[in-house]
Design a protein that fits this description.
- It is a single chain.
- The relative contact order is 0.14.
- This protein is about 5% helix and about 30% strand.
- It is elongated.
- By secondary structure, the protein is mostly beta strands.
- The longest helix is centred in the N-terminal third of the chain and has 12 residues.
């Protein structure tokens, strides 16, 4: 989906005001990584919110970043910039406000499937609670507590962060290596030899952020010893997975 952002001059409120149109949100985040880490642009640009940037044109102009000899030249076919009227003008392009979670490294997220947004990643830990009944141990329900599941009735928050040092607060992009942990017990998730997602003492090496977004799928529904649905499905790592989102 096309993604929009405003760009404003940091030193005044009347000149070099722009609307940036990106091919997708992922393209916007990748472009931001390039410009914000380049020596020429890093002192000029700031990301105030996901859809609002500033630049100091005395140092560098963001709308020049995709020129053929600039750091983001590879994005020339994925983004364009439109110069808005100065302050005395009478027209302002109103960009759509997008409702999404910012992919900030080190934050905690619920993870759900895009196809069915009421299905979330879930770790039962040691107990499951059923409304109106006493706590039931995971072993009584014939499920393995160390596995990660997909559930319609329960959900667990996970911390997603870059594995590189000193990257807290950075915006994660598809090519980044990440770790996914349970913040309550500070244990990471890993993948076993069968492709099942598990809670482990060691993280999954080489896991990319793009794999989190489309590299997992949910298995068939699990049942208890009496044949009653547990409303749980095992989470499985696969090369051709479902689409997931962080919320």
């Amino acid at each position: 989906m096309v993604y929009y952002a405003y760009i404003k001059h940091i030193r005044n409120d009347w000149s070099c005001r722009l609307v940036a149109v990106f091919a997708s949100r992922a393209v916007a985040d990748e472009w931001w990584r390039v410009v914000s880490t380049s020596p020429k642009f890093s002192d000029s640009v700031r990301r105030v919110t996901p859809q609002f940037f500033t630049h100091n044109t005395d140092l560098a102009r963001l709308h020049d970043s995709t020129q053929h000899d600039e750091v983001a030249a590879g994005f020339i076919g994925k983004v364009f910039f439109t110069l808005l009227d100065d302050k005395c003008g009478r027209h302002l392009s109103i960009i759509p406000s997008l409702d999404f979670t910012d992919h900030v490294s080190g934050n905690c997220f619920f993870i759900r499937t895009k196809a069915s947004p009421n299905e979330y990643w879930f770790v039962p830990h040691t107990m499951l609670h059923t409304a109106g009944t006493a706590p039931i141990t995971a072993s009584c329900l014939n499920i393995e507590p160390k596995l990660v599941y997909v559930s319609r009735t329960e959900r667990t928050r996970f911390r997603v962060q870059l594995t590189s040092r000193n990257t807290a607060g950075s915006i994660m992009i598809g090519s980044d290596e990440i770790s996914i942990t349970l913040p309550s017990v500070n244990l990471p998730i890993n993948i076993d030899e069968n492709g099942q997602v598990i809670v482990s003492r060691t993280p999954r090496p080489g896991l990319k952020f793009c794999e989190l977004l489309d590299g997992f799928c949910a298995g068939p529904t699990l049942y208890d010893k009496d044949g009653k649905s547990l409303d749980l499905r095992e989470l499985i790592k696969t090369a051709d997975g479902e689409e997931w989102e962080l919320v």
